[in-house]
C-alpha cells in the first residue's frame, strides 16, 4: 500500500510539473517562430507546428486561430488543398479579427482556387476586398494587398496584380522589409507574365539582392526562379539552367513541392533543347510520376510534350503519339478550367455591378417617391405630374432590367467564344458540331473534319514574344474566317490548334479547302507584326463513315492524319487512311 501511494504521488507531481511547464511556454513566441521558419526552413516549422498542436488545449482563442492558419499555410506549401481549406475553417471558428481575419480569408481563397472552387473563391475575394478598403491601418492594408496579389496571380489577372503591386510599394516606401520584398517580387512576376521581359529581368535581380540583404531567403529563391523563367522565355536555356538548378537545390530545404515540380518540368524542356535527352527524360519522368491532381496538370502537360519530342527524336513514333495525346488531354483540361475561371470571374464582376446598380436604383427610387409625396401633399393638382413621373420611373426600371438582361446575354455569349480570337471555343464548337453530325447521320449526308496546327508555333513565341504569337493566331483566324461557308463551324481547339467542322462536305472538298487554307496561311505577310518570318500550317482531314456513332471518331482520325502531316515535314495536308491506325 505504501508503494502504491508513493507511485500515485509521483504521477501527480509529474502532471503538475508538466502543467507548470505548459503554463510557462510563451505560445505567441512559438507561433512567431513557426511563422518565421515557414519562410526559411519549412521542415523545422512543421516540427514546431506538431509540438504546439500537442498542447492545443492550452492556447487562447486568438492563438488557436493563428495556429490553424499556420497549419493551413503549411498544407498549401505541400499542395494539400483540401487539408488547407479545413485548417482555415478551423482557424475561423474563434472569430479572428483585423489582419488575422484577412490573412485567413486570402489563404482560404488560395486553397479554393487550388480545388477549382472558383465561384467560392471569387465570393470570398469580393467580401475581403471590401474589408481591406475599409482598413485605416496602412500596415494591415499592405499585408492584405500582398496576399491579394497571390490570388490575382493564380487567377491570371496580371494587370490587376501589377496595379496592386505598385499601390503596395507606394504605401510601404520600404518601411517593412518583408512587405517590401513580397511587393517587389509580385511586381517582377506581373511584368514577367505580361511578357515585359527586360523590366522583369531587372526587377527580379533587384528583388533578389534586396531580399538577400534583409534575410528573407525564400523570397530570394523565388526571385532566382523568376529570373530563370524570364531567361527560359527568351530562349537563353543555358543561363536558365544554372539558375533553375540553384533554385531547385535551395527549395529542397523548404520542401516547397509545387515549386520543385515546376522547376523540374522546366529543366526537362531545357535539357531537350540542349540535346541532353537522358537528363530531359529523367526530370520529365520524375514529374510524370506525380498524382493526377489539378495542381500538377500544367507541369505534367509540359513534360508529356517533352517526352513526345524525345520519343520522336528516337524514332519511337507510337510512344511519341501516346505522350502527345496525354499532353493534349491535359491541355484541354487546363483550357476548360481557365474558361470556368474566366466565367466565374466575369459572373462575379457582373453580380457585383448588378448589386451596386440595384442599391443605387433603390436609393434613387426612394428619393423619387419622397419627392412625389411632397409634391402630392403640397399641390393636389400635381397628380398628373406624379403619374408621369411614376410612368417614367417604371420605364426607367424596365430599361434597366433590359440592360441587365442584355449584359447577362453578352457574358453568356463571351463564355462560348475564345477570348483571343473570337471564334468558338472547343466546348461550344464541338457541341454545335455534334448536333450537326447527328442530323447529317439521320439523313445520310456527308460530314468532314479539318484539324489544323500551326507549325513550330512555340518558336515564334520564344523568338519574338507572346505578343507576336497572339498576332499570328488572330491573323490566321481572320484569314480562315474569310474562307468559311455559312454551315462551317470554326473552332479553336486549344493553343495553336484549330478545327473546321464541315456538314454536307465530302472528303475531296474538305481536302481542297484545307489546301487553300495552307496556301493562304503561308502567304500571310508577317512584317505587320514587327518581325519578318514565315507561318505555315499542317492539316489532317477525315470524313464520316457508316460506323461512326458520334463526332469523336472523326476527330480522332483527323488527329492521326494531322500527326502524320507533322512527321511528313509539316506544311502539308494529309487525309486519313487505314494505314494510320495506331
From TrEMBL:
<keyword id="KW-0548">Nucleotidyltransferase</keyword>
<keyword id="KW-0812">Transmembrane</keyword>
<feature type="transmembrane region" description="Helical">
    <location>
        <begin position="384"/>
        <end position="406"/>
    </location>
</feature>
<dbReference type="Pfam" id="PF13374">
    <property type="entry name" value="TPR_10"/>
</dbReference>
<dbReference type="GO" id="GO:0052621">
    <property type="term" value="F:diguanylate cyclase activity"/>
</dbReference>
<keyword id="KW-1133">Transmembrane helix</keyword>
<feature type="signal peptide">
    <location>
        <begin position="1"/>
        <end position="22"/>
    </location>
</feature>
<keyword id="KW-0472">Membrane</keyword>
<dbReference type="Pfam" id="PF00990">
    <property type="entry name" value="GGDEF"/>
</dbReference>
<keyword id="KW-0808">Transferase</keyword>
<dbReference type="InterPro" id="IPR029787">
    <property type="entry name" value="Nucleotide_cyclase"/>
</dbReference>
<keyword id="KW-0732">Signal</keyword>
<dbReference type="InterPro" id="IPR000160">
    <property type="entry name" value="GGDEF_dom"/>
</dbReference>
<feature type="domain" description="GGDEF">
    <location>
        <begin position="445"/>
        <end position="578"/>
    </location>
</feature>
<protein>
    <recommendedName>
        <fullName>diguanylate cyclase</fullName>
        <ecNumber>2.7.7.65</ecNumber>
    </recommendedName>
</protein>
<dbReference type="InterPro" id="IPR011990">
    <property type="entry name" value="TPR-like_helical_dom_sf"/>
</dbReference>
<dbReference type="InterPro" id="IPR043128">
    <property type="entry name" value="Rev_trsase/Diguanyl_cyclase"/>
</dbReference>
<dbReference type="InterPro" id="IPR050469">
    <property type="entry name" value="Diguanylate_Cyclase"/>
</dbReference>
